[in-house]
Design brief:
InterPro entries: DUF7134, HATPase_C_sf, HATPase_dom, His_kinase_dom, Sensor_HK_TwoCompSys, Sig_transdc_His_kin-like_C, Sig_transdc_His_kin_sub3_dim/P
Helix content: 55-70%
Protein name: Oxygen sensor histidine kinase NreB
Strand order of the largest sheet: 1-2-3-5-4
GO molecular function: kinase activity
Shape: rod-shaped
Main location: cytoplasm
Order of helices and strands: HHHHHHHHEHEEHEE
Number of helices: 10
Enzyme class: transferase
Length: 382
């Protein structure tokens, strides 16, 4: 995913920043080497060094560097009455405070700079042998103050822009993290859905095969034809399970969300409840039930009948009632062993049924039936 962090404006790295500051301070310091040969003499050279050298650390110690530069500039106003080349360090220091320090410290540096502009203007007018009149003082003060204010404004603007870009980068990173979290949640939901489908298909088919195989094994010595019928049922059930498994794999491989075949629904309930020990009352397949609710109805009946075959006992009878009104109601109950049955596998199936029904705003109840057996009741509003 492309983020603002990959498109943000070009920036110097930490090493580049150090080289830039060293180059700037050195470039400003080199012309100061000629100051001892001017009227300012060695005193002027010392002041120039004190003003320019702190610029090497202006980025990471902006306030301290500014304090040294301002002190040296104040000393210049006392010791010399003419300007020095090194005074260019003052607006650079003001910019650095406005750029790298807090807003309050930047405003304090600006205030000191404006006061210094007045003092420097007076010293320059007197140093150049002029009379202390308003016009030259105002002219010098305006020029110096404009430079100081410009340096402060550029620094404050750069700091504000940096904070804005950092906020955008942080926001884009948060959006990326949220998107990744949503993808992970969607993947987890999809895995849970596939697990429910696999459980419903495999558990139903295998439980039928196991029941028929056990019956055939016990009945074969007395009546081989029963074993033949059981083997036929096993074969049909196995084929049906393979067909459903292939359909599910087709759904996973297909880019078409409808898959290779329609999902089972109300029209498929008749084949699901076929059997000598199941009494069923089913609605019309053309009842206008949404596909998702119809699939959930099918899976609830399928899982409930699977549990009947696995836990209720060989002689248990089941009753299935599915009705469609302002809601789809499902009732599956048996007269088998009920709560005394082994719990292996039942918990996962019930959890899957409850998740499916809850996803459609419905409710599901499962538990022992009065008078014996087990009862599963679900209701999904339309």
């Amino acid at each position: 995913m492309t983020t603002l962090a990959h498109r943000q404006p070009w920036r110097l790295g930490p090493r580049g920043e150090r080289w830039f500051d060293a180059t700037l301070a050195t470039a400003l310091l080199l012309p100061a080497l000629a100051i001892p040969f001017t009227d300012a003499g060695w005193a002027g050279f010392g002041l120039a060094v004190a003003q320019l050298v702190p610029l090497f650390w202006r980025r990471h110690h902006a306030v301290l560097a500014y304090a040294v530069v301002a002190t040296a500039s104040a000393a210049q106003a006392v010791l010399l009455d003419t300007p020095l080349w090194s005074q260019v360090a003052f607006p650079v220091a003001v910019y650095s405070v406005a750029r790298f320090a807090s807003t309050g410290r930047g405003l304090a540096a600006l205030g000191v700079g404006l006061c210094g502009a007045v003092v420097a203007a007076i010293r320059w007018v007197l140093g150049f042998g002029g009379d202390l009149e308003a016009d030259p003082v105002v002219a010098y003060t305006t020029t110096i103050a404009t430079i100081v204010v410009s340096a402060w404004a550029l620094g404050a603007l750069a700091r504000t822009r940096r904070a804005y870009v950092d906020a955008l980068v942080e926001r884009s990173e948060q959006i990326r993290r949220d998107a990744e979290q949503q993808v992970a949640l969607a993947a987890a939901d999809e895995r849970a859905r596939i697990a429910r489908e696999m459980h419903d298909v495999v558990a139903h088919g295998l439980s039928t095969i196991v029941v028929q195989a056990d019956g055939a094994r016990y009945a074969a010595p007395q009546d081989p034809t029963v074993a033949a019928d059981a083997l036929a049922t096993i074969s049909a059930t196995g084929r049906e399970a393979l067909v459903e498994m292939r359909r599910m794999l087709g759904l996973l491989r297909s880019e078409d969300p409808t898959g290779t075949r329609p999902q089972p629904g109300l029209a498929d309930l008749a084949g699901l409840v076929a059997g000598d020990h199941v009494a069923a009352t089913l609605p019309s397949p053309a009842s206008g039930v949404p596909d998702g609710v119809a699939l959930t109805t099918y899976r609830v009946v399928q899982e409930a009948l699977t549990n009947v075959r696995r836990h209720a006992g060989p002689d248990a009878h089941a009753r299935v009632e599915v009705a469609v009104g302002d809601a789809v109601t499902v009732l599956v109950e048996d007269d088998g062993r009920g709560a005394s049955a082994p719990a292996d596998g039942r918990g996962l199936g019930l959890l899957g049924m409850r998740e499916r029904v809850t996803a459609h705003g419905g409710t599901l109840e499962a538990g022992p039936r009065p008078g014996g057996g087990w009862r599963v009741a679900a209701r999904m509003p339309l």
